[in-house]
Amino acid sequence: MAAAIEAARRGLSVLLADEQTAPGGQLRKQIHKFFGSRRHYAGIRGFRIAESLEAECDAANVEMLFPATVFSLDGRTAGLVHRGRTLIVEAADIVIATGAREKPVCFPGWTKPGIMTVGALQTLMNVHRVLPGRKCVVIGSGNAGLVAAHQLLLAGASVEAVVEAGAAIGGYAVHANKILREGVPIHLGCTIAEATGGGPLEKVRISRSGGGDFFVETECVAIAAGFRPNDDLRRFARGEADEPRIGVVGDADRVEEASIALEQGRLAGMRSALRSGRLDQAEFDREQEAAERALAALRLPRGDHPAAQAGRIAAPAAAGKRIPVIRCRERIACDPCVGKCPAGAIVKTDGPGSPPRLEAERCTGCGLCAASCPGQAITLVGASAADKSAAVTVPFERCPLPELGQTWTGVSETGAPVCGVLVERIEERAAYDGTALVTVRAPRERAAEIAGIRRMA
Predict the structure, then answer these.
(1) What kind and span of H or E run contains 31?
(2) How many CA atoms lie within 13 A of 89 on its CB side?
(3) Structural fold of domain 2-99+228-298
């Protein structure tokens, strides 16, 4: 879609074809807020990004064909089937953005109903509104598995376990911490040895790499074992004399993040405009340089940033004012908190992968940073009361919301219980886009430790 928009905006006639019934690909199935920069729709939910891109396609007069299956690619001539009709389309340029295929995991009982890939889970749950089970287990702790676990929680399911064969969590710590704060266990060095049940799935047997098995009751297993490029059309195009005019972008080329696919798509669209004489070389060079800078930031090496000072309060809260506590350690080119802050109190001064820094004297305590953070890694701590307690505001997305006057448990960044807290305020605003801010009363000396709240059994 990004390639189509850039090419069409520069005067090219563009046809966008996809086998799905609506444009947007995987974005249509994502209900969480995305990481990245404002350039990459950071802080916006995936399905809303798809809607925005569709509107941009409409505005640029992109012809969209759904559902359409491309069954052949001979040079720059494509064969398509659309609603029972066969179409032959000739193009000056072709961009292949067919995404990726999910890798399966096989174990005894893996064909039982209720065992599926995370893509199938998200289609059922987020597109068709069907919850495949009240108790679920997720295989894989990469970002796809962690996000799926979080989405299951938002849908009202109980995630009984995330099972990871490796010795470390594979995805972003902020994704993992979101589900750890909800009490979801992540079992490292473990694999599913067997799925059992007389008919439907009833439980799975999990084996530890060091020895020993245990059972977990579940009605659903979501497999997030990684992806590989869906490159069938690319292989059709190989060996053609005019292959340079057939571009491959996104996961069809190399499995990476959606933000990277957007940048690659934009470049592909501009490259087509350049070859067609609708874009001059100087402008293309400027745009390419900007895209390469963005791609370099998006591909930063994993790990904590050396400048991170997560969890520290920059200054004591003044009377009537609450101050953000930012728990953002990793090298992630992500800045929705910077863009959402109306006072310019959150800045990034050490490059796109650096952690955000708070200028406390400028902060108004509006809470937009906490509501917009995709990792829910920002809370706010308010002024102390006469009884030496403090107000702590946390982002909250699950249903039902807490009730005023209820006692919950404040939990740490990784889900460890901190102390009991009393719910005293709930904020729901359109600007928060589905994320409520829940304010609780806690002991002042423990306030900065609280990263979330959980209702203990």
Answers:
(1) none
(2) 25
(3) FAD/NAD(P)-binding domain (3.50.50)
